[in-house]
Amino acid sequence: MPREGFAESVARFLDEEFAERPVLASSLGRMEAAGELDDLSQAALERRAARTASWLDRLTKITPQRLDRDEQVDRDLLLAELRGRAVEADWQSWRRTPDGYVGLALTGVFTLFLHRLIPERRLAAAAAARLRQVPRILDEARRNLDPELCSGLLVKRAIAQCQAAITFAREVVPAEVTDDAQRAKLAAAGEAAATAYERFIPFLEDLAARAAGSPAIGEDRYSRLLLAKELLPWDARQLRERGRRQIDLIADRLAEEVDGPWRERVDRLREQRPSTPEEMLLAYEAAARRAREFITRYRLVTLPEGEECSVEPAPIFQRAVLAVASYSQPAPFGHSRRGRFFVPWPPPGASPAEVAQRLRASSYHRIPTTSVHEAYPGHHVHLVSARENPRPLRAVVGTSFFSEGWALYAEQMMADQGFYLERVDELIGQLEARRFRAIRIVLDTSLHIGDMEFEEAVEVLVREASYPEPTARAEVLRYCAAPTQAASYLTGCLLVEALKEKFLATGQGELRDYHDRLIRLGRGLPVSLAERCLQPAEE
How is the chain split into domains, by residue range? Predict the structure, then answer.
């Protein structure tokens, strides 16, 4: 295939992708169908699976030698993505979990207002149109979800998300616009959506009572995701063993840093935490600002011109299902370079005891390393820098093994550069966070292999990571819903660290050069593909 033909194929793939998934398109800055939600009917989802198979067949027939290096990398990136989708299509999550149905309109409406890429009148009309489609999406869920396959754990999780969706649609969305007439239209659409969510809850409650399935995707599928999608050399059990070794290695590092039993020191540090969510927000803001000043002063990475990162409470619809900090990038095909660092806010109606438990997960010794991970020089710096890559596929397709690997690498790199040295408790927090990511590898692989039950995984987090039980439950539910994601942090980090040593050994540049080149490769190449991009041209 000539080079022009390959570029045209990529463009056609992306056009099909955006037409098939309008919520994804608008979140990336493609606003052609800003008022549409995805079609989640069985027929549409089966067409997606057929399209995946067709593109796999088409790409495997391309002769790599006829492409230049960037095109070869793009071809292999897309093949990896499609092979992962084939595994997921085999699993048929659309028959097993309500998450995708409940969350689609929430994400679709939230990102419209988050990015604000079109005038407010059009924005309000698009949001109202998406809210009016909520009954259709939930009807598709009723038809598709199979109680023999559904996990009761994940159905109950969706009930909590539904309850947050009611408040979001009815109260939060109308307040996003200033014009009275537009606000009234949004309020009417939001009321229709909220009513649909209210009517969906009894269906979910009945589904939870009858659900007989397991969230575990199985050892074979998990290993296929690692090998075929992530291009890793380890299967599920080999990855778990790597995680176990890292737990011990990091525990040894903690013992070296702490005078006395390190677990007792960490337990005391966890009690030193903000007393209110507002205090927590201020602490995260200060830590992010300090991290930005550090990487600028020591020239550790080149910040794109015009970038900024605001620190905000987590969106209301995320609070019931996400107990940790998160980051939302600016739309890759938009113009803004403002990212959002969301801190783990308590859900609406949380009791004082529940609020205190949430705050315990944001103790002062952990806030700096979390801020490094999410903002500077972690996710925010990576994803605003990745916008400078001119290859559109790399703005759309990516892997958390790179993006989360980079962010965890950033935590360790900042420790190596002395960011935490004046505050030894923060260094302990960084090592504790790294050990927690190793625990995640073991839990995620064990849950999906099928030799660890949900309650056992919760107990491990409470015992080994000292997580409050509600936070531990939210964490483990996340692992159940997104296989391999939890294992991606430390796995990717170790690969990025190894790649750094290779880069510096070749004499191609200094540490800052490595960082600048790596994070501008795109949203998240599998690290083996990133390594090919960083090899000297003569190779």
Answer: 3-210, 220-492
